[in-house]
Amino acid sequence: MNTLVQTVFNGMALGSVYALVALGFCLVFKASGAVNFAHGSLLLLGGYLVAVLHEPLGFAGALAAAALGTAAAAALEALVLRRVAKANGPAVPTILTIGVDILLLTELARRIGGDVLGTGDPWGADVLTVGGVTVAQARVYSLLAAALLVGAFLAAFRWTGWGLSMRAYSSDAEAAALMGVRGDRLRMSAWLLAGALAAVAAVFLAAFPGTGIDRTTGQIALAAFPAAVLGGLGSVGGALLGSLLVGMAEALATGYQQQLSGLGSGLAEVVPYAVMVLVLIVRPQGLLGAKESTRV
Fold this sequence. Notes:
Elements: H1 2-32, H2 39-88, H3 91-112, E1 127-130, E2 133-136, H4 137-159, H5 161-171, H6 173-178, H7 183-206, H8 217-221, H9 224-232, H10 236-255, H11 267-282
Antiparallel strand pairs: 1-2
Helix pairs in contact: 1-4, 1-7, 1-9, 1-10, 2-3, 2-7, 4-5, 9-10, 9-11, 10-11
């Protein structure tokens, strides 16, 4: 029973971190119509900045600087892609993000090399034991931080002018523009916010029981991409639900790896994609996505 409770908690904590990443995918798609395949590299950039800055700035200062730096890098990427998007629609920028990902990942891998970098987080390898259930403190803080950030985002999305503009623009960009919505500013804000959330997610992905920041950290974060897709790419609620589902499935595959050994090793690494495929077979539009209407 303790194993099940511990696994469920780990799944919720992991899903909460994936939610920060999936929100980034979702926001960029809603604002620009493009899928940002460089999001994993941006996340690695955020983690790398925290790792190199935490000694001179302290953990909190490094995290703030990393969030700003990653947001600025995402905004720069958006500026580069904006001209292409105007002439060719969202498909070409989506492909170009693959090139941006390769360039950024290559440079970061060159800088990191074979090292594993610590982020200087204050909770370290400490654990909490409650009723015989042992969980890492980092998991508790990741759950709290993600709940705070996602809650703030949902409140802004629901009750602010920015959120209203974002919903209107993603529904009908031309009509929103006629009503005075500034599309360029809206797209830029989405990329900035996605970059900042990626930096925060990097810290918790690297925290205990993770080993730290290495060159593969960005690839691990891509498990959040199936979460965004199976929820219905462009659906904020779907991204959150998909993240929780993927995190729970991955935690169960890890916690019961011995009992599931008949399915082969490394099941936890492929289970997010398996869940995505199974959901999309049943609901091609995703869990909370809407079917596109076709005029005939």
